[in-house]
Amino acid sequence: MRGFTARSLSRLIIGTSVFALAGVPAAALAQDAAATVGNTGPSEIAPQPAQAATDPAESDDIVVTGIRASLRASADIKRDAQGIVDAISAEDIGKFPDTNLAESLQRITGVSIDRSNGEGSFVTVRGLGPEYNLVVLNGRQLPTSVIGDGNGAPGSRAFDFANLASEGIAALEVYKSGRASVPSGGIGATINIRTPRPLDKVGTRGSIAARGVIDTSQNGKNDITPEVSGIFSTTFADDRIGILVNGVYQKRRASVNQANVGWRDGYLGSENNWGSLAQPGDPRARNITNRPDPTDVYEVPQNASYDVNNISRERINGQLVLQAKPTDALTATVDYTYSRNEVKTRNANVGIWFNHNDTSSAWTDGPVAGPLFYTERFTAAEAKDLSYSSALTAYRTENKSLGGNLTWEAPGGVTITLDAHHSTAESKPTNKYGNSNSLGAAVFGVANQTINFENDLPVISYQMQPGIDPLNAALIVPTGNAFRNAYFRDRINQVQLKGHYDHDGSFLDSLDWGFTFTDNKVRSAYGVLQNDTWGGTGGDSAAQRAAAAALLPDDIFKAIDIPGKFKGVSGVGSADIAKTFYGYSFEQVVGLLDQTYKICGGDGNCLTPYTTDRRIREKTVAPYLQINNTFDLFDNPAHLIAGLRYENTTVKSSALVPIPTGTRQNSQNEFNIVYSGNSDFTTFSGSYDEWLPSVDFDVQPIRNVKLRASYSHTITRADYGSLQGGLTLDQLFRVGGGTGAQGNPNLVPYKSKNIDLSAEWYYTPESYMSVGYFRKNVSNYIGSTQVNGPAFGLTNPANGPRYRAALAALGAGATFAQIRDYIGANFPGSVVNGTILGRADDAPVNFVISTPFNSDETATINGFEFAIQHSFWNTGFGTQLNYTLVNGNRDYNNALPASVSQFAVNGLSDSANASAYYDKNGIQARVSYNWRAEFLAGGGINPFYTEDYGQVDASASVEVVPGLTVFAEAINLLGADRRGHRRSDRNVTFVVKQDARYSGGVRFSF
After folding, report:
1. What per-residue confidence (pLDDT) applies to 223?
2. What digits encode the pLDDT tens for the residues 368-390?
3. How far is CA 770 from the centre of its chain?
4. Read out DSSP for 518-546?
5. What is the secondary structure of 543-576 as a DSSP string?
6. Considering only CA atoms, which of 326, 334, 322, 473 is closest in space to residue 409?
7. Who has greater pLDDT, 196 or 362?
8. pTM of the full structure
9. Residue 371: closest CA among 294, 302, 298, 473
10. Read out DSSP for 738-764?
């Protein structure tokens, strides 16, 4: 937020990079890190003796465990790996106050996260967002399932880390440079989630933990919610058979209170469009202070609201692993991984909408002018509405993965691995309404309304017409509603055959080869039931509104205090801010309206059938070969790894296209498409080939110093929405026309040509300094081309002989209600349920159909990564610091209007982390600060920025007796808030109030 302390803190620190590969024994640390992807292997850090930096073979009597052992392993993995690989171990995750894996990944250099409902959910690596990163589980490609925002069929490939708890995960590995042996699909990074296996460490062992969580963001009482986790592993039959089982249950209650503002497009000061500022000479221009100049760009607000969200989340994770080692050379593994994340959000909000008629405003200077305030006045005859809305979001995401692995250490230094898995991810609603549902109500009679933008919080205020009290429950009229039903399922079947040959020679060290077949099957569906009765559910006459209002008992409404929901946010203390509004029970009101007005058909079931149903199937064949060499360069040890990966992918895309039958006009500038209920499938196909070379080189010019250089090609496949195979029209359109979209299965992947350079100095076993440089040249960006024209014979009710006859009879200033009543009286059958139906003699609707294509646009992304990991001798104190600089050559120009098409790269931003820790004598403590600079969250014709954000987390634990630990954790200790804006920081889009979350509990290990 403006003036937010994150800015000053970020100037003083360089964040933390904690890269500890889970559980790699000391003898295994020299292995190539890439070899862990998809292979069985250690997943815990064994206690290690402290060693002198000058001679790793020598050791003293000090045994290092806990944080220090993890950091030592991280230094070893970073030093001995080929390419750029960072990792963090389960031991570190357990010591951080991390609610999920995304919260843990942000500790790694160059990794930042996006938060949803106060928790980390999506990961950005080196400025490349979640859709550009591939997530694998034990080297197996994970299916993804994100249900989306409820406004259309889901289509993202991004992996939502909110589905996974951090407990029960052995390690996270982030592969920043491409390798032939590493799965493709992420130009940002490939992130490997490793889970533990019983033969990693023989014997019987386990742990159980329980904690209580208090989220202080809760509206009302701060409930304590439980989190329980446990793991048990044992081996028997001479340690040749092992079984491991773990489980996690977490429940959380929280609140996210948010101010939202919607905006019209960026206009030039010279433009004269609907919604733009009055031009000089217009009497309304006298009400504009410091009007933007003709060449300035500005944006006017369209709507604003205060939203109170109460969230309930339940997360269940579990895994079962069976291993057998019948001979010393053969290991068989079967594992099943399960996760379920169920989220329910109840929303109550008060909102205003602008008609852009009798307005006043004041503006900052250009060239990008921002509003200081924006006001509109209304007459009593306009009966302007103050919106009281309720919404219910409820969905469940379920992930299942069944896999098997056979590893044979054959004679002659050859290792063969066969790995296969069947995995699914599915997201769907959990109630009879849908996953994203909204219910409107209103008090009619706003006299004026204003948004003031001079503080961090947009200050919404309004005054009603004489005799209208917005807190008189008897005046609250139910209006329009929408029930959205989205579904997403991703199924992946994958088989991998890998070989490794250790060569006992002076130059050729080893060979890796392999073959992968991936069958990815996706279904994305969506349906919406929308009643556009925004003038009143039973009609917009005074009598009809009164009857609808009388249906809702007064005691159904509960007063909500607005300033109390945004404590501490600049602007909340304004005398003008709206103080109170009413919330109400979503289910109760839906039941009453369905019983009386049949808004869902009268049976109480609002779960609408799918009108959009998309099926995509990708099949990829990928062989690879990698040559690993070791040699001396001027008497200094060096390594050279060269590999080539070939990928052939075929895409078959089918879409169930709804068949529209007509149109209707709901208000002056709001129209809808009417569907028949019938649909038909259309199918398209495509294919592409990719050759992906990679080269890694490193040399140790002096003792404990390593220099690296890497070059690689990597790809990221197009999102599923862009690959869909049918034409779909947006249900809502305006008087000027509508919009739609058609997919393109022939899209080829984004391609990045990468250069990585690194210099590292390991001056003690637990301490190092490093600096790295990266450069990515990215091509095949997906653009959108637009085609204008009619579709399905749909016509515009506001552009035909009936409408012209009404205007001729009533005059150009006639209201929509007057025109509708005239047409209903003179053209029978034209008006149904208060809407005007389109007819064949009306003019066709012009639709702008957007189709994705691979553009000629390219981008260069480059930056530096700085990291320090330092242990202060044997004091127990230490620190980890890192800072990542990210730059790009395709920035968004805020001074250009929406009419000018722009290409910019989203997500690029600097980030920093800092941690200080203490670990000695059974006491551990850590304080961490994570910061991310402002970044472009979305582009297109208008930009969306997320402002810089910093968060402080802390944790502490005490081992009371051997094996029994008491711990406490705090997340967002200082209660940092989040904010976003468009072209100007006055064009605020959201402000999210956030508060600290505390937990405490016990952990018992055996």
Report:
1. 92
2. 999 999 999 999 999 999 999 99
3. 30
4. EEEEEEEEEEEEEE--TT-TT-SSHHHHH
5. HHHHHHHHHS-GGGEEEEESGGGGTTSTTTT-TT
6. 326
7. 362
8. 0.86
9. 298
10. EEEEE--TTPPPEEEEEEEEEEEEEEE
